[in-house]
Every structure is written in C-alpha cells, then in structure tokens.
Amino acid sequence: MTTLTLTALVALGSFAAGLLGALTGLGGGMVIVPLLTIVFGVDIHYAIGASLISVIATSSGAAAAYVKEGFTNVRVGMLLEVATTIGALVGAYLAGILSTTVIAVIFGLVLLYSAYLSLKPRVEHVVGGPPNTIARWLRLDSTYPTAEGLQPYEVQGVPAGFGLMGVAGVLSGLLGIGSGAVKVLAMDQAMRLPFKVSTTTSNFMIGVTAAASAGVYLHRGYIDPGLAMPVMLGVLCGALVGARLLTGARPKILRLIFSAVIVFLAVEMLYNGLTGKI
Amino acid sequence: MALREKSSGHRLGERWTDDELEQLVGNLLRYGVLIAAAVVLFGGVLYLAHYGGGHPSYHVFAGEPASLRSLHDIFFGALALNSHSVIQLGLILLIATPVARVALSLLAFAAQKDKMYVVVTAIVLGLLVYSLFFGRV
User: Fold this and answer.
1) Model pTM greater than 0.95?
2) What's the distance, CA B108 to chain centroid?
C-alpha cells in the first residue's frame, strides 16, 4: 500500500469515527486506536499519539460551541483538572514502561465498560444535596439555566470526584482517549452535578487533559506527522458534519450500532493483545 | 497582547464581563483549532506531494527522529517548509489551544482577584507548560 492510499483510508476511517462519535455523543477517540492497530496494523504507541491529537481537536471544537450556554462550571472544571493533568502525566509515564500486551488488554476492558455504560439507560440522578463544607469552602456551588430560569445547585462528594478524575486522567494519558465516560460518571454520581453541567464541564476538561499527555508523547517521539495528519483532519471533519446532522438523526439506533462496534473492537483488542499480535 | 486589543476599554486590572470572556474563549478555541487544522492540511499536502508514492511502515515502532520531537527543531524545520515539521507545528498549535484557554482563565481569575483559583489554575498551567516544553516524566 502506498502512503497516499494509506493516508486516504485512515482519513476515511477517522471521518467515520468522528461522525459516529458526534452523533452518538460517545466520542470518536475511543475507536481510533483499535481502528489503527487492528485494521491498519499500526504500532499501538503511534496509534495512541494520533488518537490524543484527535481528542484535543474534537474537544476544543465542541467546547467553542458550548461556551456561551452557561452550563460549564469553570471552578469545578479547573479544580478537577489538577487531578486529571497529574493523572495524564502518570498515564503517559506508564505508557512508556508497560508492555503493549498490557496496554491492549486495559484498552479492551475500558472499551467493554464504555459499551456497557452507553447501553445502560442514563437514570436521572439526584441533583445536589445538603450544603457541603468542602464545596462551600472551594466555592463550587453555582447555577445553571433551565426552563424555569437559573437553578442553583450544591456540589457534593468533592474528594471522591477528585479521585475518580485522577483515574480518568491516567486512562487518558495511557490509552489516548478522552475518558469522557469516567469524567461524566464522577460528576454525575459522586458530585451530583446537573446533567448538562457535567457533560459540558467534562468536555471542557477533555482537551486540557489530553494536552497534558500529548506534550510528553511528542517529546518521546510517539506522534508521527504522517499518521496524525489524516487522523486529526478526518475526525475533525467527521465531528463537524456530525454536529450539523444532529437534529435529524436517530441517536438510539446509532448508539446501539456504535456500541456493537465498540464491543467488537474490545474483543479484538483483548484477543490480539493476549496473543501478542499488537 | 491580543487580550488587551480585544477587550479594548478594559485594562487587565478591571473585571471582564462574563459575556466578553465567553466570547474571547469561544474565539480562542475556534480559531486555535482552525489555524492548527489549516497548518496541518498545508503540511499534509506537501507531505503527500513528496512521499505519497512511498511505502510507510507503522508496524514497527521506531520513534520519531529528534528533529520532530523538539519544539525548536520543529519550528525551524517548518520555516524551511519541511513537510513533516509543518505538520508537527500544526499539531503543536493544536496542543497549545487548550493551554492558552487555561492561561486565559488564569488572567480572568486574577482580574476577579480570586486568589484561590489563581493558585489552582496556575498549578494546571504549570503542569501543561512543563509537559509541552520539557515532556519528561
């Protein structure tokens, strides 16, 4: 295969990943690494480097659209970014010392867990709770716009949320993914933030977290320009088109299809990782 | 510098209105990604024109050469229109976009005299700058 053909195919695959990621809200970054390693036979280190780049591109592109809506809690985001950036640096360090087999197996397990989360109906959790000493001291409580006007909320479980975010950061730095699922989980379940606040704040953090490990990947020589170029441009175009199409799409069926793809890729990652083919 | 131009009439010591800040952050993200994508695309065209007929090998991990790993070498390689370096420069601009957003938040917290969050944001910014410029963990 010539470089031109490979570049075109990688760009096409990345476009599909970005499109599906935007339409389902599950993020396309998760499927880039399995796509590159399993379908194109790329070494997992290059694949993770290219995937991190695509995660920054889609997160920043989407965040530009969210900024105005007033859902993002910048204090919560910034505080938790201390945990995610430290985690991301730890993850990038681990990526340099763990064997490709271990990385592939962890990747497969995270994919399975993400597929499970995406299929589980998202139960509307209890928002807020009694005034919380730590949250109050850190001035995390805020308001968000609803149909009935600005609604105040009290943030809960700050230490638990902070710890979970550290884990999300490690996974992001190790696997080159956004870890949006873990981030939203921490903010929904542990900190009891309103739905839209956790989604947009998580998106605000994904780009910053990925940037923390991307610097390390660049200096280590894990980011190959010839590979990162079609991945970044493909995912970005896919995500932009996906955002335009969103109104007429049918997310339920798409989520089902995308989850099936993720389960398939998870099994492939586990199989190839355990048999030493990655 | 661009900050002062955009918020004309407001010196840094004064508090920005939330609207102005949101607009600034939105534009920063939008143009950061667009400019980075344009540079990557330009480098990609150069790259395919030179190497499109070759046969890449990504199966074996060798790591990138030093000239594509250090910010200094990438910058001067891009000035010489080396296609690999131009793409890397675009990727660095992309990585720098969220870093610039955090820097902007730091200025905003400072303008609001919010000491606690100036410290929190400075920690995040320090980790990001360290990773981008030194990148050893």
Assistant:
1) no
2) 19
Find the CB nearest A216 among B83, B99, B137. Answer: B137
pLDDT of residue B6: 39
Please tell me the distance from the alpha carbon of residue A2 to that of residue A66, in angstroms, as a whole number: 40
Task: Compute the nearest-CA separation of A208 from chain B (Å).
Answer: 5
Q: Interface pTM (ipTM) of the complex?
A: 0.91
Specify the amino acid at residue A2: T
- Phi and psi (nearest 5°) for A143? -130, 160
Place of tokens 């175009």: A237
The answer to whether the beta carbons of residues A39 and A278 sit under 8 Å apart is no
pLDDT digits (tens, 9 = 90+) for A81-124: 999 999 999 999 999 999 999 999 999 999 998 888 877 776 66
Report which DSSP code applies to A154.
-
Q: Which of A140, A167, A153, A146 is nearest to A74 (CA)?
A: A140
Query: What chain A residue is nearest to B101 in terms of C-alpha separation?
Result: A208
Single out the residue of B91, B94, B103 nearest to residue B128, CA to CA.
Answer: B103
